[in-house]
Sequence to fold (400 residues):
Amino acid sequence: MLSVEEAREQMLETIPVLPTEKRGILECVNYVLAEELKSTENIPPFDNSAMDGFAVRATDVKDTSEDNPIVLSVVETIAAGYAPSKQVTSGEAARIMTGAMMPDGADAVVMQEVTELNGDKVTISDSVEKDENVRFTGESVSQCDSVMSPGKVLRPPEVSMLASLNCAEVTVHQKPTVAIVSTGDELTPLGESLTPGKIRDSNRYGIFAQVQNAGGIPIDMGIAPDDEDETERIFRESIAKADALITSGGVSVGEHDIVKNVLTKLGEMNFWRVAMKPGKPQAYGKIDGKPVFGLPGNPVSSLVVFELFVRPAILKMAGHTDLLRQTFKAVLETDVTNKDGRVNFMRSILTEKNGQYTAKTTGPQGSGILHSLVLANGLITIPSGATLSAGETVDAQFLH
Ligand code: AMP
Ligand code: MG
Fold:
């Protein structure tokens, strides 16, 4: 059996990063930048006021205080969006709004709160230093600065920065389209009534949502029945339509071997036994050079294997370099044993108290008990053979 780390490393090494495309600024959030962005402009493009107030020469108000106010002549009002038309000389001030261009001659702004305007005279009752309340040309970004490098994830601040740089289009990595197929004669889609022996197909919907959350573009390819020809037809159609394929079910031992047979026939597949619970049986490989993930059928196994293996793969395809969830230490609230020879990823509620996380498992942990994941916000890692008491520390990670 492979360890989780070995299997994941081997798999991730073979995952391709998708080619790039140009996207408009309004359609690029959460994509990964694939070019170096240099500023062609200064931000801000001119010296401007950080306050509503009065642009002055700092030396004029050097000794000013509430007990020793000074009166200056107001030469004009400068609103944001307009250029000043007058110079400020000694004994003068210009009324200025936040973001408005600094007038020649002035080198500081006195905030409105310490002034009183009477006609064209202003009484100032506080001093300012030179440069105070002034935002200088290029202080945020200078012309020719490198602002963002390839690999940068475009979050809202980056989108805002693109607009500041007059960048209407950017080169990003494509997001993967991911075809999803459930397998098994027992599966019934939503809306149809259950006949004896049948169950709901829940995995397809859960995986669809996981692909969306990982930033992939899911394509629902329905249910493949336990029939080799039909399964082959659906798998072929799926791989032709998408950058990757996820199947659920049919990869464990003692299974009707249809899924395994078809995957083996279509591509280069490995049927892995990974030393983890839930989710020991998994398949990974490629068909037509595209990654294929065969997830186990048990609902908890399918969701957990996706989280630990498929999510990082989707992130890598989309150009991300930070692929794995952060792990941290959590203190057990109850005793936990793992008699298995495999690492157990227990579904847990992780709570922070005074900078320390605690972990409480979410009841029965069978791989079919989906509710154990619905109640959980994270996973804790219980090493094989471990007997741990409340108060001991384990590795933990969030599921979101
Ligand atoms: P398998 O991996 O195909 O042997 O399936 C293992 C268990 O998961 C069986 O109890 C299946 O009925 C169940 N199962 C398989 N596929 C799904 C699915 N799409 N939704 C819910 N349960 C499933
Ligand atoms: Mg099956």
The first strand starts at residue 20 and ends at 24. The chain has a mean pLDDT of 96. The chain has seven helices and 28 strands. The chain has four domains: 4-17+175-317, 21-42+148-173, 48-135, 328-398.
